[in-house]
């Protein structure tokens, strides 16, 4: 169980680094989704299933809005 928690913590940090190091919104959103899924998995392993579900739904909605907005700005030539 300790190794699993260590793996989730390391994956969460790597997801944050993936967001910070990628200038492209296409790859940045992959890091956001990875960080969100791993963070919710971490809460789920602690026994907080309802908090994990609500947090994932809120993050997923927010991430999709920001991703669509940034992709539309990147695709617009003007």
Automatic annotation (TrEMBL):
<dbReference type="Pfam" id="PF00499">
    <property type="entry name" value="Oxidored_q3"/>
</dbReference>
<keyword id="KW-0732">Signal</keyword>
<feature type="transmembrane region" description="Helical">
    <location>
        <begin position="30"/>
        <end position="48"/>
    </location>
</feature>
<dbReference type="InterPro" id="IPR001457">
    <property type="entry name" value="NADH_UbQ/plastoQ_OxRdtase_su6"/>
</dbReference>
<keyword id="KW-1133">Transmembrane helix</keyword>
<protein>
    <recommendedName>
        <fullName>NADH-ubiquinone oxidoreductase chain 6</fullName>
        <ecNumber>7.1.1.2</ecNumber>
    </recommendedName>
</protein>
<keyword id="KW-0472">Membrane</keyword>
<keyword id="KW-0679">Respiratory chain</keyword>
<keyword id="KW-0812">Transmembrane</keyword>
<keyword id="KW-0520">NAD</keyword>
<dbReference type="GO" id="GO:0008137">
    <property type="term" value="F:NADH dehydrogenase (ubiquinone) activity"/>
</dbReference>
<keyword id="KW-0830">Ubiquinone</keyword>
<keyword id="KW-0496">Mitochondrion</keyword>
<dbReference type="InterPro" id="IPR050269">
    <property type="entry name" value="ComplexI_Subunit6"/>
</dbReference>
<comment type="function">
    <text>Core subunit of the mitochondrial membrane respiratory chain NADH dehydrogenase (Complex I) that is believed to belong to the minimal assembly required for catalysis. Complex I functions in the transfer of electrons from NADH to the respiratory chain. The immediate electron acceptor for the enzyme is believed to be ubiquinone.</text>
</comment>
<dbReference type="GO" id="GO:0031966">
    <property type="term" value="C:mitochondrial membrane"/>
</dbReference>
<feature type="transmembrane region" description="Helical">
    <location>
        <begin position="53"/>
        <end position="75"/>
    </location>
</feature>
<comment type="similarity">
    <text>Belongs to the complex I subunit 6 family.</text>
</comment>
<keyword id="KW-0249">Electron transport</keyword>
<keyword id="KW-0813">Transport</keyword>
<feature type="signal peptide">
    <location>
        <begin position="1"/>
        <end position="20"/>
    </location>
</feature>
<dbReference type="InterPro" id="IPR042106">
    <property type="entry name" value="Nuo/plastoQ_OxRdtase_6_NuoJ"/>
</dbReference>
<keyword id="KW-1278">Translocase</keyword>
């Amino acid at each position: 169980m300790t190794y699993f928690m260590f793996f989730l913590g390391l994956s969460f940090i790597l997801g944050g680094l993936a967001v910070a190091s990628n200038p492209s919104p296409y790859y940045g959103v992959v890091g956001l989704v990875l960080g969100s899924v791993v963070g919710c998995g971490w809460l789920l392993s602690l026994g907080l299933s309802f908090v994990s579900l609500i947090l994932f739904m809120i993050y997923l909605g927010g991430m999709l809005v920001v991703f669509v907005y940034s992709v539309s700005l990147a695709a617009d030539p003007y």
